[in-house]
Structures are given as C-alpha cells and as structure tokens.
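FAQ: What does the model actually see?

It sees only this:
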Amino acid sequence: MKSIIITENQAGQRLDKFLAKYLAQASKGFIYKMLRKKNIVLNGKKAAGSEKLNQNDEVKLFLADETIEKFSAAATSPNTSSRTIPSAEVLFENKQICLMNKPWNLLSQKAEPNDISMNEVFIEYLLNSGQLPQERAFSPAVCNRLDRNTTGIIMGGKTLYGLQRMSELLKDRSIHKYYLCLCVDPMLEEQMLEGFLVKNPDTNQVTVIPPDRKGELPPGASLIKTSYRTLADNGRYSLLEVQLITGRTHQIRAHLAAIGHPIAGDSKYGNSAINEELRKKYRLKYQLLHSWRLEFPKLDGKLADLSEQTFTAPVPPLFYKILEEEKLLDTNLKRKIICGRMNTNGN
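And it is asked to produce this:
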C-alpha cells in the first residue's frame, strides 16, 4: 500500500488525471478498474475519478509495491544529452510562472521524441536554478505556442496553478498579445482584419477566406480577427505592431499574406523574390515576426504581482539590424524595441 498526500502542485486537477500521470505506464482501463474495486481510494472513500483534488487530500493505492513501481516508471525516451539545450533568456519570473524570450528555429513543444524545444529549455533552467518541483505527476511546461521561426515572449508554468491560470487567461483572451513584424509594401496606419481560416492538416498550411465569401466556407473554418497599426514604413517595407485578437495556426502570417502584405522572410506565405534578396543581403533565414508585448489584466492572489503589468521582449539582433539599415527606426522606436526583460508598467 502507498499513501500519497496531495501537494500544492498536485491540487486542482481531477483524480483520474493525477493517477494517469502518477501511474504513467498504466492504461486508463486499469486505473478505473482499481477505482471501482476500491484498490485506489480518496480520503478513505471510494472514488469515481472525477473528483477535484485539494491540497492535503490523501490518495491510497492498495497495490503491490512492484505494481506501483512498474506503472510509475518514467517512459523511456531517446538520449538527448549529446545535444546542447540553449540557455533560457528570462524576462520575468515569480513563484508561479516564467516569461522567456524564445529564439528562432526552436519549437515551443516537441513534435518528435528527439526534439529540443522551449519546454526542455524551461525545464533545464528550473533544474539548474534549483526550482524544479519534485512532485511526481506534475511537470512544469510552456503555456502558449509560437511557430518554430517566430521569436519572442513565451510563458512557462512553474506550478500547476500557474499553468492552469495562464491557460484560463489565454483562453478567455484576458491577456493581450502584441507582435512586431516587417511586411512587404506600405500599409494603412491602422486596421482591423477579419476573415475565416481553413487549415490543411496534410500540409500544415492555412488559407484565409475573406468575410464577403462567408457563404462558401468549408467545414472547420474558424473566424479570425487581427488588428494592426503601422509604426514605420520606408516605401518598401512596413513595420507593424499586430494585436492577435483570436489565436489560430499561422494566423498573423496567413492573414497579412492574404491582403498582399506578407511578412519578410516567411518561407511558407511570403514573397520568394524578396525573401531571397533579404537572405543574400542579411543572411535572413526566418520570418521577421516577434511576440513583443504581453499586457496582463487585473489579477490578485498568487499572481497579484502580474496585475495590470506589461512585459516586452527585445527583438533579435538581426531583426534590429534590418530595421536600422532599412531606416525604419527613429529614436523613440529604438528605445521601445530594445527595451524588455523587465515590466514596462504600460509605458
């Protein structure tokens, strides 16, 4: 028999979800069978698995030690120790979350077992700084996703509460997300774009259908809204600040390309001739799209220090160099674009 006292990091989730992580190698059928037979009980009583766990609850496993050991063994994964995990560029952290500046050419989460992603960067940072939780059935993780070649702010949840609360704020769009991007050709100073996004799962590419063709929408089409304002233009390129109102796959990239203003360097939706020119001139290998600023709503409790705060991430050096050489930066913009790492209090 094994007794498990639920910690703060394990509280707040369903019992069956907790057991699926704690007994990671066991099937769902086995777990529910053990619950039905009262071989697994919650606070001394029979449980269905749907109960929400509270801190200091007791879960008892009336199973042989060998069975518990067998089912709780970590899944075997390929050795990635020979691959270098990049250091995390931390912009802000508290006990619950961590804000990091993601580089290009790095996934947010693994797509293949051998991948090194921002998730691994985050875990490595917590391990090296002595902050990695020891509780079984909980692992810190990134909360939002950016495309492999999109840079900028990515959030990591250090605790289960941090993960869950950030997910809630992202889902209800309480956190306002702003991006910087360099687009082809001058644009209007400010505009709200709407349309419908359709994803092709075979190519991982999306198509944007304009609102006036709403009657032609295929199944699975999603409404998207993208707001932008022009910060600068040189007659050939525009530097935009884009607010992501909805959050869909490749939304900003596809939406801007659909109106004839693709993002510079974008190999999937961009202008190949201009991309080649930028590659030769600046050795640019990725789209100039940067998750620049997060604005948090009013918060209290464990996240009170985030309440109504704004955080920014400095653009990558190559992005900054291109903006400067293409004469898209005045003194005020330079100050804004290189700031970051600490909260800006909305200024």
